[in-house]
Specification:
Layout: H1 51-59, H2 77-84, H3 89-94, H4 99-126, E1 137-138, H5 140-153, H6 161-165, E2 170-172, E3 184-186, H7 199-211, H8 215-229, H9 235-257, H10 260-263, H11 269-273, E4 290-291, H12 311-318, H13 327-335, H14 341-357, H15 359-364, H16 371-403, H17 420-441, H18 446-474
Parallel strand pairs: 1-4
Antiparallel strand pairs: 2-3
Helix pairs in contact: 1-4, 4-5, 7-9, 8-9, 9-16, 12-14, 16-17, 17-18
This protein binds protoporphyrin IX containing FE.
InterPro entries: Indolamine_dOase, Trp/Indoleamine_2_3_dOase-like
Binding site for heme b: 394
GO molecular function: heme binding; metal ion binding; oxidoreductase activity, acting on single donors with incorporation of molecular oxygen, incorporation of two atoms of oxygen
């Protein structure tokens, strides 16, 4: 089901039972129980053939598990990789039928690859110097095995958010306590992340803690789409129940997101992020990276980024949020490739299914006076409000963790730091203002939705001012389109 073509007129095979013991399936498959988390908790222990890799990865972080400085603290990783690590591609092949194990190897080689390439930049960064150039060649003992496991797991041969850095990088300190924040530990880290109270650990673990709530998000989405696919007299009721489930799940996700402020400190982010930069659009890699023994030409890939999480893209596709036709939106589309193949297939399927059903029109162009139809609109607006809430908080993160800390112009995924996040936030605000105005006209806004629309109108102006200020300070072109005063007269049909 990973890369297998799913016909768009068939129901996407979302799992209810995530089949945690089935090693013939990719680790990442969308389910109504674990949502976008892998089907099983990530594999921690590698087979004995990989003992050298394990030993290097344990000695690698700036601060190791014992608290002693590791190889990256003194710039010793490059030499150790050359001296100690054999090319273990044949050992990878020996286990190729065990896809979750391939995923663990992909995670581990991608940690090593990023640390190896960016080690020189880290050494300059801690001296307060600009990043300068990274290493531009990945030696065979890393490039061949990472290319092999990435191909088997259907990832890019470079660190990704789900398959490597975040969602396949946790273990349970006490398995009997399950997936609760205080019980989560990182498997791999670059800087201080093996200490669960560190900002690096907090940054990663908050992502996992959020995605832990994505099962009902998937289930609610499927319920909404199913209810319209085969219409019955109960369709509207079922649709509204599905929307309510989505809303509940997003509220939990946003509630956990808010804990980032205390779990990971704004002034610590820039030091561990050196290792999660990608190759695409980064000054550290002006000529890409040569993967020795794999491909002839230089390669480039986007870096690790929450932009490759699937929860918000799911909502973008389900709600048919119109994105502006800008080069920034092209980057958003490019990000959609950097995720597990099954997530990719699911997101595409939802986009097509919502579009074919004309979901947005069905909700917004129905007669305004039927109570259940009005409820669909209110729920839809509240779900959009959670997407807004996510993106607004996210913009606040970008301001506090990045813009106020560094002048480096490009985020880890290779997007321009000042304008990219606002491109999407602006689009969500505009959509909400448009839909809110149409409810207002019909006299159906109600108090809660009225408050939401008021907030949207205030945030449109604040965002505009903030982005203009950063663009001016940094000499960046302001790309946001002007805000039409309260979007009067804008059509809401899809
Ligand atoms: C300190 C916290 C965070 C910072 C500094 C941060 C930073 C960024 C940056 C700079 C981008 C732009 C894309 C790029 O990398 O080129 C981005 C995108 C994104 N990040 Fe984060 N992030 C944070 C936390 C999170 C969390 C907890 C999630 C949860 C899943 C997340 C999900 C996303 C999403 C979905 C996008 C795409 C946004 C969109 O479509 O508008 N981020 N992040």
């Amino acid at each position: 089901m990973g890369s297998m073509a799913i016909k768009m007129d068939e129901r996407f095979p979302v799992l209810d039972d995530p089949l945690p013991h089935d090693t013939s399936l990719q680790a990442f498959m969308v389910s109504t129980t674990r949502g976008f988390l892998p089907r099983m908790d990530p594999i921690v222990t590698l087979p004995a053939e990989f003992d050298v890799l394990e030993s290097i990865l344990q000695r690698m972080p700036v601060k190791t598990l014992s608290g002693e400085p590791g190889l990256l603290a003194h710039g010793q990783l490059g030499d150790v990789v050359k001296e100690e690590l054999p090319d273990l591609t044949d050992a990878v092949d020996k286990y190729k039928d065990n896809l979750p194990l391939m995923n663990a190897l992909y995670r581990d080689y991608s940690f090593l690859a990023s640390a190896y390439l960016l080690e020189p930049c880290h050494l300059r960064f801690i001296k307060g110097e600009p990043y300068g150039l990274a290493r531009d060649t990945l030696p065979k003992n890393i490039s061949r095995p990472i290319a092999r496991c990435a191909a088997l797991c259907e990832f890019k041969p470079f660190m990704e958010y789900a398959g490597s850095y975040a969602l396949f990088n946790y273990r349970l300190a006490d398995p009997s306590l399950g997936l609760v924040y205080s019980n989560l530990r990182l498997i791999r880290a670059f800087e201080h992340g093996l200490d669960p109270s560190s900002s690096e650990a907090g940054f990663v673990l908050v992502h996992i803690d959020m995605v832990r709530n994505s099962g009902p998000l998937v289930a609610g989405t499927m319920q909404c789409l199913d209810s319209l696919t085969t219409p019955t007299p109960q369709t509207r009721t079922e649709f509204n129940t599905g929307l309510a489930t989505i809303l509940d799940s997003l509220k939990k996700v946003n509630g956990v997101m808010e804990t980032m402020w205390t779990k990971s400190k704004p002034n610590s982010y820039t030091s561990f992020r050196t290792f999660i930069f990608g190759i695409t659009s980064q000054s550290m890699f002006p000529k890409g990276v040569i993967y020795e023994g794999v491909e002839d030409g230089p390669q480039e890939f986007r870096g690790e980024s929450g932009a490759n999480d699937s929860m918000i893209p799911l909502m973008d596709n389900f709600l048919e949020i119109p994105m502006p036709n800008t080069p920034l939106t092209e980057i958003l589309k490019d990000f959609r490739q950097y995720r597990p193949s099954n997530h990719r297939g699911f997101l595409e399927w939802v986009k097509t299914r919502s579009g074919t059903l004309g979901l947005r029109s069905w909700v917004w162009n129905t007669p305004p006076n039927k109570q259940e139809a009005v409820e669909s609109k209110r729920l839809w607006l509240k779900v959009l409000n959670q997407v807004r809430d996510f993106r607004w908080r996210h913009w606040c993160f970008a301001r506090e963790y990045i813009l106020k800390q560094t002048s480096h112009p490009t985020a880890t995924g290779g997007s321009p730091i000042v304008t990219w996040l606002p491109n999407q936030l602006h689009a969500v605000l505009a959509e909400m203002a448009t839909l809110g105005s149409s409810m207002e006209k019909d006299g159906n806004l109600g108090e809660e939705c009225g408050d939401i629309v008021d907030l949207v109108r205030r945030q449109q102006k604040t965002l505009w001012k903030e982005v203009s200020k950063y663009c001016e300070e940094r000499g960046v072109e302001m790309t946001m389109t002007p805000i039409p005063e309260y979007h009067e007269g804008v059509s809401v049909s899809a």
